[in-house]
Each structure stands twice: as structure tokens, then as C-alpha cells.
Amino acid sequence: MPVPSLLLLPDGRLALQTEKGPEAIHITPCFPWTAPLQYLSLRNSEGEELYFLKNPDDLDASSQEILKAEMSRSTGTFLIESIPSLRKEIELRCWEVITTRGPRSFQTELDEWPRELPDGSFLVEDLFGDLYKVPALKNLDPASQKRFWPLVG
Amino acid sequence: MTDSLNQRLIQSYTSQPSTLPKTLRERLPTIWGKQDVVLYAMADLDAAHNLQEQWVLLGSDDLCLLQISGDSEAEAIQKIPRSSIDKVRETADLSGYRWEILSKDPNAAPLAKLHFSRRQQACMENIRLLLQAENTPEVDPELADRSYADALSEPIRNAQAAIRGDQLTVIWRLLSYLKPYKKDLWLGGIAAVLLTALSLVPPRVSGLLIDGISKGTSSTSLQMYIAVLGASYLLHTFFVWLRLSRMAYMGERVAHDIRTQVYAHLQTLSLRFFTRKQTGSIISRCSSDTDRLWDFIAFGVIEVALSTLMLFGLGTVLLLLDWRLGLLLTIPVPFILFSFVMHGRKMQHIFLKAFRKWSDLTSVLSGTIPGIRVVKAFHQEDRETKRFLNCNDDCLHTFTLVHKVWTRFWPSLTFSFHAITLAVYIFALPRLTGQSEPAISTGTFVTFLLYAGMFMQPLQTIGQMTRMMNRAVSSAHRIFEILDTEPHIPETVDQITIPRLDGKIQLENVRFSYDGVRQVLQDISLELQPGEMVGLVGPSGAGKSTLIQLMVRFYDPTAGRILIDGHDLRELDIGSYRTQVGMVLQDPYLFHGSIRENIAYGLEDADPAAIIEAARAAHAHEFICKMPQAYETIIGERGQTLSGGERQRISIARAILHNPRILILDEATSNVDTETERNIQEALDQLVKGRTVIAIAHRLSTLRRANRLLVLKDGKLVESGTHEELLQKEGGVFRGLYEMQQELHQNFVV
Prior knowledge:
The structure holds two protein chains of two kinds. By secondary structure, chain A is mainly beta. Chain A has two helices and twelve strands, in the order ββββββαββββββα. The radius of gyration of chain A is 19 Å and the shape is elongated. The termini of chain A are far apart. By secondary structure, chain B is α+β, with helices and mostly antiparallel strands. In chain B, the strands form five sheets. A six-stranded mixed sheet of chain B has the order 13-16-17-10-18-19, with helices on both faces. A four-stranded antiparallel sheet of chain B has the order 1-2-3-4. In chain B, a hairpin with a 5-residue loop joins β1 and β2. Chain B is globular, with a radius of gyration of 36 Å. Classes of the chains: A mainly beta, B alpha+beta. At the A-B interface, β8 and β9 of A face β5, α4, α13 and α18 of B.
């Protein structure tokens, strides 16, 4: 199958140019942390895979731009800048953090440990499934480092 | 779950309003007239994914979007008539959702775009369901607050012990379990106080004895001192025994009472509770948590009380004995206590890391040992060894750090005590030798030193008090959570008991969702006649197993109702109903015990002849008789000593013996070979006679005997008819599945 092109529909949705015409799609990165911009499954609203994009470099320049914008919009998480409070309660670990999106408090289960990502940062998933990226320990302020240290490394 | 608890959880944990802000509510009449708020939610992200407060309000006529500014005033109001909304298009991102509210005019741009985190998804989904419902259900506006609070707090409720309260309340509740054992408590308590008081005697008598010797006191007096010393040791031993035995027995009985109460209450809880709590967590509440409470009740409470008493007692005695030297010992006490607390905190910090490393290590073990065949099959022994080695090294490093901290702390502390003792010597020596006033006798000095030596233990106990209290309160919370959890499936007051069911089953517009978000079943309506055999088919995830779980009332439908012989299932006495329903599952669960006990599970008085008859009908009698102890053979945990087919035939025998009016077969023959399947199928043919039967099977050919087949797809009932009728249906789901299986079978044969 030849490499198709991506386009934006008039309502702003991402679409794949198919033989039948443009079809709205969403992108599922197969490896969102280890290879976020490769191995992308392009799926229609029914969840069927229309195209498997191994490498975005295969796309034309315009499609690459559209893909880049869509990926930055759809794969964003809360980025933690500092951890003013991290305390243990019964069955819960309660976080109060400053993120790039604003201050936020969330909770994780006590045995939910941060997951180390290839770039040295860490991923935390809260009780609701929201994802938070914490920078590598050395990139946090000393007080946050001290609080975060037991949970990683 | 009370509304106030939900609201408190939201306030405590989410830092977002627990209800629609009052100022906003007051402004609503000016925005959309007299409409009630049917549902509301918060879209907490803006287009750039920054946090914001935008309220989404659903009324009877309009959908309203209100942006809140910093001073809680609504700005940027957007009102969308519901009549103009076609549907909501939802896109799930990695950590959040996007909504586009689409107009009925296909050429128009989306009416609104919303962004929100996963935290808001359940509330938003409620709005979406109502917006898109073909027939808008009546929703009581008074339930809007409840719906919002319930959906937002559910994950927190599920994760945390549902009960909340300060430490004192929990400990008070815990101590209420001591009521039946007042006598033991009194005896143990009095013994503890007396032995504390007695432990102050030997140092004083020893001092008097030494002074007596040095002053040449008569041997009778000295013998009397020794006698007092001996008597105090004897009494001390007696009170130690009395205290330990009384408190240990009492603690054990309290733990026993709590365990019994917890286990009995667990049996009343719905499957929903067991779904959201991990099995290990529930087991640990009945076992290690109660054990921890035993330790706290038997020893912790008294230890802490006695240590405090001892510390004050020692301080007073030392000051009375010699206030100058007494001050030398008592002034450092607050500092030492503080150092204990700080050390405890530091250790807790490092222990958290150590615990995590340890859990990494055990997870390697628990992953590879049960899967050792796979490891060997893929020749990954070296890789697994290396993985374990890495975890083991990590553990070593962290525990080295643990040891580094405590091995520095305790010698430092001991040195502090030695330094204090040295200071006592330095200050006391001139007075002992008569160079300074007031003079002090050798006996008094020895007494003083002996008392000083007793200071360490109570200080250590009090220093660890916070940790011990936290552990006990945490265990108590986890236990009380179970005890305070209401059975999720409420019983109605006037329950109907039907001694013998006819077996007619009707489903009316049944909807169901496990999480309140994803609709597993949607508007299912069907009717089964008594004695009819119906096959449920459909692809994986279609909702077949969920449907039968509703029929046995493991869960209640979220909408619609199920009628059994014309009665709403919720009105039937659940115990009486379930005794008339039999289930044969894909992976039958057998308990550790004899084959006889497993067949007669729930029918303890079953006639042995009836057990054998049921086993014969289930084609199980032959293999049972070949077992070493026939029907009395003990099968291991979960029946692991039997083959899959044997386990299945025992479960069929169990169902036959119970003679159910409604029989559910959930993939009863899917995990067995062809020969065994034939045997089981023959057993099932015996079993289904004269009952209403609902059978799920992936092998569609096994449902040929069914009077009717019902085809489910994506939670909807999409086809219904006989095997032949459905095969005739061009492009039908059943026909598609059947052809796929035939093709697979032919390929296999080739």
C-alpha cells in the first residue's frame, strides 16, 4: 500500500486520504514512551486500523507537519515541575505538585511506583488514569528530590 | 455511600469544588430561565491543555458552558439548545479527552469543543449518555449533585478505606472490642502497673544493701534486704506472667472476634467489592492486619502506657534521690526523644525505598517461578538470573543504606548515655570521696546508676510509638472498611420467595456498566420460556458473560429490569432464588476437600446415593471410582490434581445434584479435548432436561440443540432465531462467526 497523506478536515479533525476520499482518523502510538513518533497505528472512528505508519519520515512534508501537531496535542501529559508535598495516607499516596499546566493534587495507590522512561524521566499514573511526567531526579529542586527519592532509582 | 462522604473525599483530594459553586447556581435563572440542572461536570483543561474551571451544565432544554474566572464569577457563557445537538464526538488522548459537540446540521462546525482530564471523564460521560439517549430518561434534578460527587469520588473510594476518621476515633473503636474481656484487661493492666512499680524496687534495695555492707549493718538487716530483693524478683516474675498471659490471650480473642466478623461480613458483600479490591488485599485484612491488631492490643497499648509511666516514675525517683544528679539525667530526655522521632522519620523514608526494591525482587520471583516452563522453553535462564541479580544488587545497596543509618544512630545514642553516665560520675565523684558537699553514699550512687540504666528502654518504646500507632490505625482502617461496606445489592424489605421456579426469564431494556462509563449491555430485551434452551453467542467482549451475571444477580442492571416468573429479580429473596439456579463455568472452581464434598457443596445432607447418581449422569462416576479413595479422595487446591475435563464433570455433577430450575452453562466445554468434550456434552444433555437453560459457547456447533440462539455484539442484541434461521441470514453476525469457524476447522483438517 503506498504511503498515504494526512490532511485536516474542515472541522479540524485529522484525516487520512484514502481511495474513497478523506476519512477521519485518530493515532495510536504503539510505543508511546520508547518510540512516540514511530510505529503509529492510524485508526478510524470504528477503531479499525487503516494504515500502519512505521516511520513518519515516509510521509510528505505537509503530512508530517499535520502529524506533528496532532501528536503534540494527543500525547500530552501533566509535566511536573516540583513536588511541594508527598505524603502517605491509608492506602493512598497523596501528591501535591506544580505542573506546567498549573498546580494539581492527585493520588496514587501505595504500590503504584513511578515508571522510569528511556529519557530518565518518570511516569506516574493516578487513580483516575491521568498521567504525570516527573523529570529525572537531578532536574528537580532539592526539596522535591528528597520527597521523590524513595520512590525511584 | 453517603453524599457527604463523597463530597469530603472530593474536597480533600481533588482540590476542585465538591458541588456546583453557589454563586454560579444563583446566576442560573438569568442564564437559562427556570430549567433545573439535570447533570453537571467540569471540563478542567483548555485548548492548550492548561488547567481551568469550565462547568458543563445539562438542563432539560439546554447545555450550558460556563467559564469561571479567579473570583468564582462566571464568564464566557455559551448556551446550546439540546434540540440542536446531534451527538458528542469523543477522542481519547494519552492523558485526557477531547469532545466536539456536533450540530444536527452536518455542514456546521462543531457547536463547542471541550478538553478534560481523565478525572472528569465519568461525570462527562454521564452527560454524554443523556445527551445522546434516544429516549431521554427522566432524571431527578436533585440527583445532579449526587451523580457528580459519586462519579468523581469513586476511584478514590475504591482505592482507599471507605471510612475516615482521626486516629483517636479509630483507636477508640478498636478498643471497644475489648469490652467482652474486661476482666482480662483489668488483671493484665493491674499486673503491668504493679510490675512497673516492682521494677523500681531492686535498684533501691541494692543501694541499701551496699550501704549496709559498707556501714557494717547487722547481718539480719542485710538478710532482710536480700529477702526483699528475692521477693520482689518472685513477684516481678509472677506479674510478668500474669500480664503477658492475660494480654496475649485477650489480644488473640479480640483478633479472633474481628477475623470472624470480617469474614462473615465479606460473605454478604457483592461481587463489585471483590472486583475492585485485590484478592491479596482482602486476604491480608483477614490475616496480617488482624495479627497486627493483636500485637497492638496485647502489647502496644500497655507498653506505651507503661513506658510513659516508667519514664515519669524514674524521673521522679531520680530527682527525689538526688536532684542534682537527677537533673543531669532528666534534662537530656526531651532531646533524646526528639532524636528518636527524627531517626524514625529518616528510617521510614529509606525503608520506603527498601520496600520498593524488595517488592521488585519478589515480583521477579512471582513472575518467573510459576512461568518457569516458559523461561526454559525460550532458553531465558541466563536473562532471568541476570534480572534477579540486578534486583538483588539493588536490594543490597538500599539495605546497606538502611544499616548504615541505624548502625550509626544506635551507637551514637549509646555513646550519649555513656556520656551522661560519665557526667554523673564526674559530678558525683567529689561527693562520694567527701571533697564536695552534699556527700552521697556509695549505695545511693549505685542505686542511681541502676535506675539510669533503666532509662533507655522506655525512651525507645515511646520513640517508636508514632510508628506503632500508625501501623495499628492503618490496619484498623482497612478492617473497618470491610465491616462498614454495605452490601452493594440492597435487599428490598418485602422479599418474595418462590419455592419452585417455573423458569421464565424476561429482560426489559436492560443496561449495565461496570464502571459507570462503558456500557457493557445496552437496552437488552428478551424473553425465555420455562424449559427453553437458549444459546448466547457473539464475539469476545459482546457482553454474554455479563448478561448471565445479571441473571444470577451478581450485579443489578444500571437501567431496566429482569423478571423471573413475572417478578422483578430485585424483589426475590436472593438466597432462595440462587439455590434454584445452577452454573457450570468454563473454569470450574473446586474447593480443597473430597470429591464428595465438592459435588455436595451447599447440600451437606445429600444422600450418598444421590451423589453417585449425579456423578453417573455427569459421566464422572467411572473416573472417580478409579481414584485411590474414590469419592473420599481429597483433591488439591482448586482441584489441581484433576484434569480440566474431570473438574468440569464434577462441577456438572454438582449442578445435577442441586437440580436447578434455571441452568447457566458458560463455555462449559471450551477448554477440553474432543473426547472429553463428547463426554461432557453427554453429561450436559442429561443436565439440561426440564430446565430453562442459557448456554454460552464459542463452538457454535455445540449449540445445535438450543431452541433459539441470541446473538450479542457490542453489548446489543443484534440477532435472534434458530441455528438454521440465523445461518440463512445474509451478512448476519452469526453466519459470519459460523463461516469463520468452519473455515478454521477445514484449515485445521487440511
